[in-house]
Design brief:
286 residues, mainly alpha, two-stranded antiparallel sheet, 10 helices, 73% helix
Length: 286
C-alpha cells in the first residue's frame, strides 16, 4: 500500500491544528480540560446518533426531545464526573446532576409513551451511546484528579497526556509503517489497517512515550509503560469498533470536523475505548 502524499499533507496540516487545540485544552487548567472534552463528547454523541439513525430505522423516528435530551444527559454525565468534589449550598454538584439526569430521562420516557413513540430498541441505542461515549470520556476526569494535588502542584494532566500521546504516536506510526511495508490486513472491518503497521505502531509508541515522558513526569517508567501499552491496544480496538459502525451505516466518515480525518468519532474513537481500560488499570495498580 503506497503513501498517498496529497492526503498525507492534508492530514498533517489539520493534525497540527488539532494537536495544538488538544494540548492547550489538556495542559492549560481544569476548566479548559472540562470544556475540551465536553465539546468532544457532544460532537461524538451527535455523530453516533446520526449513524444510528441510518443503521436502525426505528431510531430515525425518535422525537426531538429524545434526541436533544440524550445530548443533555451526556453533558450531565460529564459535569458529574468533572465536579464530584465541589459543592453548592451543601450539596455536591454530581448530586444535582444525578437529579437532572433522572428528571430528563423520565421526561423523555413520558413524552415517548404519550406520543406512542416509546421503543425499547431506541432506548437501548441511546443508553449504549451514553455508556460508549459519555461515560468513556467522563472517566478522563478521575484520571486527571489523580495527580492534581501532587507535591509539585497541579500536574493532573499527566495520565491523560500519556494516554493521548500514546494513541497519537501509535496511529501515526501504524499508518506510516502499514503504508510502506504492510501486507497482511488486520481485520476485514478496516482493510487499510495491517498487522505490520499495528504491531510497529504499538512498539514505537510505547517505547517513545515510556522513555521520553519517563524522564520528565513523576510516575515511574513501569506505570507509564503499562498505561501506554493498554492505551495503544484498547485504542486500536476502539478504532475497529467505530469502523464497524461506519460499515453498518455504509459511510466513509462519521462527520467532517477535520479535513483528512473525518468527524469527532473518527478522531476520538480510540480514546473512547482506551480511557475506560486505562482507568481500570489505574484502579488495579493503585
Amino acid at each position: 500500500m503506497a503513501i498517498d502524499f496529497p492526503v498525507l499533507k492534508t492530514r498533517m496540516l489539520s493534525a497540527v491544528i488539532f494537536a495544538a487545540l488538544m494540548l492547550g485544552g489538556i495542559l492549560w487548567n481544569q476548566w479548559s480540560f472540562f470544556i475540551l472534552f465536553t465539546v468532544v463528547q457532544i460532537g461524538c454523541l451527535f455523530e453516533f446518533q446520526k449513524l444510528m439513525r441510518i443503521i436502525t430505522p426505528e431510531y430515525a423516528a425518535i422525537s426531538k426531545l429524545h434526541q436533544w435530551g440524550t445530548l443533555c444527559l451526556g453533558i450531565f454525565v460529564m459535569i458529574a464526573f468533572a465536579f464530584q468534589n465541589i459543592t453548592f449550598r451543601g450539596v455536591s454538584i454530581d448530586q444535582y446532576c444525578n437529579y437532572a439526569f433522572i428528571g430528563i430521562t423520565v421526561l423523555i420516557l413520558l413524552v415517548d409513551l404519550i406520543s406512542k413513540k416509546i421503543n425499547f430498541k431506541t432506548i437501548l441505542v441511546s443508553a449504549a451511546g451514553l455508556i460508549y461515549i459519555s461515560l468513556g470520556l467522563a472517566l478522563l476526569f478521575p484520571l486527571r484528579d489523580i495527580m492534581s494535588h501532587s507535591f509539585v502542584g497541579d500536574i493532573g494532566y499527566t495520565i491523560p497526556l500519556v494516554l493521548v500521546l500514546s494513541i497519537w504516536i501509535n496511529d501515526s506510526a501504524a499508518y506510516l509503517v502499514g503504508s510502506l511495508v504492510g501486507r497482511k490486513p488486520l481485520s476485514p472491518i478496516s482493510p487499510n489497517k495491517t498487522w505490520e503497521g499495528t504491531i510497529a505502531g504499538v512498539i514505537i509508541s510505547v517505547l517513545l512515550v515510556t522513555k521520553l515522558m519517563g524522564q520528565y513526569i513523576p510516575p515511574n517508567e513501569k506505570a507509564i509503560f503499562l498505561i501506554s501499552i493498554v492505551a495503544c491496544i484498547a485504542g486500536t480496538m476502539g478504532d475497529l469498533v467505530e469502523s464497524k459502525l461506519k460499515r453498518w451505516a455504509n459511510v466513509k466518515d462519521s462527520g467532517s470536523m477535520m479535513p483528512g480525518h473525518g468527524g469527532f468519532l473518527d478522531r476520538f474513537d480510540s480514546i473512547l475505548l482506551a480511557t475506560p481500560f486505562v482507568w481500570l488499570l489505574i484502579q488495579l495498580l493503585y
